């Protein structure tokens, strides 16, 4: 009798079109600002209205970890760095980039403490701390060397393991510059000064992208479209109502101070930091160039093979 009741309930849910609650993987959820459209989309019911009931976001430390979590989950879609997507394809994992996530590096501040370092060219003769080899911070360091014609031996780039370790090294003058992202920058900006925001000083680079397994794209294109639409609505809300969006983030990011959330969100909304989903190939190529500079990618690689724009709304397809 109990089994019959369960079966009847399941049939009733299916016949009524009831959506199953879903989880999505987003790199560095709870730490940096990439996750705000997901928080807004869940809070405002945009995903459910679009046809997929995403109720929870799962964070990871990025790279291959996020890709593995995506492929192992019930919903094989997630937001990752472009370098993770490239590495996945090169290792034989069948995924495609289906939308852009974060479209620029306007949350990356080059933070210094010493008053004699006033601009980027002053980094010559100083140490630029990175989190790890081949990371985004390593890519940025190499691009700074290239653009400002600083010899590599004139700006050593010690690997420090984490942003917090970098800040400790900055305080002790073990390094003289590190990258600090939002919302941490808004919390610490009275202690340090920024000599440049990366989106202002380097060519465009995509920071995150939405990826899905090819199998999932073929089997459930409607779900991928719903994810893209729900997130897009979240981005539009952020740009129209940044203060309310910032307040929403504090419900999802544990311990985030409302004042810090607001100070981080407002300039990023103005800078169009979050993409509605359209895939800017020049910015993707910029990221791939950075991967080559740090030795993460060599040999021929066609970025277009990574991308499937067919599930984007028509007005976002390029």
Structural description of this entry:
44% of the residues lie in helices and 14% in strands. Mean pLDDT is 91; it is low at 1-17. The N and C termini lie far apart (55 Å). It is built from 14 helices and 8 strands. The protein has helices spanning 2-15, 36-44, 46-50, 64-72, 82-90, 136-147, 163-171, 184-188, 198-201, 214-219, 221-240, 242-252, 258-270, 281-293, and strands at residues 21-27, 53-60, 77-80, 95-100, 108-112, 178-181, 193-197, 209-213. Helix 11 (221-240) crosses helix 12 (242-252) and helix 12 (242-252) packs across helix 13 (258-270). The radius of gyration is 21 Å and the shape is globular. The chain has 2 domains: 19-104 and 206-316, Periplasmic binding protein-like II (D-Maltodextrin-Binding Protein, domain 2), CATH 3.40.190; 108-201, D-Maltodextrin-Binding Protein, domain 2 (3-Layer(aba) Sandwich). It is an alpha/beta fold and 318 residues long. The strands form 2 sheets. Strands 2-1-3-8-4 form a 5-stranded mixed sheet, sandwiched between helices. A 3-stranded antiparallel sheet has the order 6-5-7.
């Amino acid at each position: 009798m109990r089994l019959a009741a369960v079966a009847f309930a399941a049939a009733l849910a299916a016949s009524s079109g009831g959506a199953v609650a879903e989880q999505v993987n987003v790199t560095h959820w709870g730490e940096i600002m990439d996750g705000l459209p997901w928080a807004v989309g869940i809070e405002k019911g945009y995903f459910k209205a679009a046809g997929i009931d995403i109720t929870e976001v799962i964070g990871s430390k990025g790279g291959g970890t996020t890709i593995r979590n995506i492929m192992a989950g019930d919903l094989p879609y997630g937001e990752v760095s472009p370098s993770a997507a490239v590495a996945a394809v090169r290792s034989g994992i069948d995924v495609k980039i289906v939308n852009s996530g974060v479209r620029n590096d306007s949350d990356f501040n080059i933070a210094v403490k010493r008053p004699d370092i006033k601009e980027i060219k002053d980094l010559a003769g100083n140490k630029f701390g990175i989190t790890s080899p081949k990371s985004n911070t390593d890519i940025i360091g190499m691009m700074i060397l290239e653009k400002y014609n600083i010899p590599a031996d004139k700006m050593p780039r010690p690997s420090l393991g984490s942003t917090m370790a970098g800040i400790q090294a900055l305080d002790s003058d073990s390094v003289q510059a590190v990258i600090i992202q939002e919302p941490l920058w808004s919390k610490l900006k009275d202690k340090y000064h920024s000599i440049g925001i990366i989106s202002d000083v380097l060519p465009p680079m995509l920071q995150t992208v939405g990826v899905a397994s090819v199998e999932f794209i073929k089997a459930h294109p409607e779900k991928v479209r719903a994810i893209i639409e729900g997130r897009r609505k979240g981005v539009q809300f952020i740009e129209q109502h940044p203060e309310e969006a910032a307040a929403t983030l504090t419900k999802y990011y544990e311990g985030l101070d409302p004042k810090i959330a607001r100070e981080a969100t407002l300039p990023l909304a103005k800078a169009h930091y979050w993409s509605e989903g359209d895939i800017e190939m020049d910015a993707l190529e910029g990221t791939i160039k950075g991967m080559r500079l740090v030795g993460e990618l060599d040999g021929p690689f066609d970025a277009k093979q990574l991308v499937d724009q067919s599930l984007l709304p028509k007005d976002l397809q390029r």
